[in-house]
Structures are given as structure tokens and as C-alpha cells.
Design a protein that fits this description.
Blueprint lengths: L4 E4 L9 H15 L7 H5 L4 H8 L5 H12 L2 H5 L11 H10 L3 E6 L3 H8 L10 E4 L11 H10 L6 E5 L2 H9 L3 E4 L8 H6 L2 E2 L3 H13 L2
Parallel strand pairs: 1-2, 1-4, 2-3, 4-5, 5-6
Helix pairs in contact: 1-4, 6-11
């Protein structure tokens, strides 16, 4: 196994934003009297496009919440006002630096919109050097469709089998598997179900631990 590129999800993987996002949904649900299913966040985390809308349509009142919450969730002024480095997941800067120093290509592949993702990246106190960024408003199909990862690999000039995807969501892990890429799950708010567990290839407790994983894979090449 030769890994030449690492593809990062954004929300919940690079930055601690999922807890904030879930609280926005819970606050809205209380305000509008919407009953969110127990597995609601498992379905929507990392999802987008038609798959997200189809699921939202199965939860009474959630379509109204989606419109209200999107305005709050993707308020660029709010995210730009966040204190420097307060959203960084542990090991974020260290992993980016190590990947750059060791010749890996780096892509950010997020279901969220480009302006939002770049606003988050700009909350880091040191520049995060990456090669490509592919966002939800740049592709036709959302995760678990593999399009976003395949486009990232194509722009990097790396074959899918030489890519490692880092993800914290079920939709993202499935998209990486569908793309024929190696995939590492880094836990955030989602507890893997049986389907997700079957699609996870590697698991690391933090972004820092990915360095150890890649070193081990280098030895076994």
C-alpha cells in the first residue's frame, strides 16, 4: 500500500464545529416543536444535496428547521469572528506540517460551501498548506457519492488507490470506500453503526495519531 495523498474532510475532522451545529439543530427543534429522531445526526452529518433533502423530508418539520438553521450554521461573519485556533482539532497543524515535510499531497474535500470552509481554515494561526480544495458547491453529487473525493484525487494527479481519506462521518467513510480509497475514521460525534463499521479500514484517536499510522504504512510498503 503506497499512500501519496491525504484527503481531509473539514467539519468535525479538522475543526470542532459539529457540536455547535448539533446545538443549533436542537435549539431550533425546541423552538419549532420538532421531534428529532435519535439517529438524526448520524444521517445528516457529512451529508448534502439530494440525499440530505430526501432524509430531511422524512422528519416532520425538519424542512423548516433546515432553512432556519442553514442561515445560522453558515453565517460567515460568525465563523470569521471565532478566536484563532479555538476550533482546531488536536494535531491539526502538526499533521499538516508533517505531511508537507514528507512529500504527501493534501486535499480538503468538504460537503460544505467553499466560502465557509475557507473561513474555517483562516481561523488557524499558521497557514495550512494544501494542494487542492473541493467543496459541496463545486460538485454535483454529495457524499456518500464518491464524486468529491474522486475530483480531489484527479486534481492532485493521484490514483484513488494511493489516497488516504480522513473522515469523522458515516457519509464520508462510505464515500471514500465508494471511491476505492483507503480510509481512516477519526471519532468526533458519530458512533459507527454496523454499516459504517464495515466500511472503516483504519481508525485513529486523533489527527496526531495519523502520523503514526502513515509511518507504519511506509514501513510496510
Amino acid at each position: 500500500m503506497e499512500i501519496k495523498a491525504v484527503l481531509f474532510d473539514c467539519d468535525g475532522l479538522m475543526f470542532d464545529t459539529e457540536i455547535i451545529a448539533q446545538q443549533i439543530w436542537r435549539d431550533g427543534a425546541r423552538e419549532y416543536g420538532v421531534d428529532l429522531p435519535a439517529d438524526f445526526f448520524e444521517h445528516i452529518t457529512g451529508a448534502g444535496g439530494k440525499d440530505l433533502l430526501d432524509y430531511i423530508g422524512t422528519v416532520p418539520g425538519a424542512d423548516t428547521l433546515l432553512k432556519v438553521n442553514r442561515k445560522k450554521r453558515f453565517d460567515l461573519d460568525f465563523w470569521k469572528s471565532i478566536n484563532t485556533d479555538c476550533l482546531n482539532r488536536p494535531g491539526l497543524v502538526e499533521l499538516f506540517n508533517w505531511l508537507n515535510e514528507n512529500g504527501y499531497k493534501i486535499g480538503i474535500c468538504s460537503s460544505s460551501a467553499y466560502d465557509y470552509v475557507t473561513a474555517l481554515v483562516n481561523t488557524v494561526s499558521v497557514p495550512l498548506h494544501y494542494d487542492v480544495i473541493v467543496c459541496g458547491d463545486m460538485v454535483t453529487h454529495a457524499k456518500p457519492d464518491p464524486e468529491i473525493f474522486l475530483r480531489g484525487a484527479s486534481e492532485l494527479g493521484v490514483d484513488p488507490e494511493n489516497c488516504m481519506v480522513l473522515e469523522d462521518s458515516k457519509q464520508g467513510i462510505l464515500a471514500a470506500k465508494n471511491a476505492g480509497m483507503h480510509r481512516c475514521f477519526i471519532p468526533d460525534t458519530i458512533v459507527p453503526d454496523e454499516i459504517m463499521r464495515g466500511a472503516i479500514e483504519f481508525e485513529a484517536p486523533s489527527l496526531n495519531a495519523v502520523i503514526t499510522l502513515l509511518k507504519e504504512l511506509q514501513v510496510n510498503q
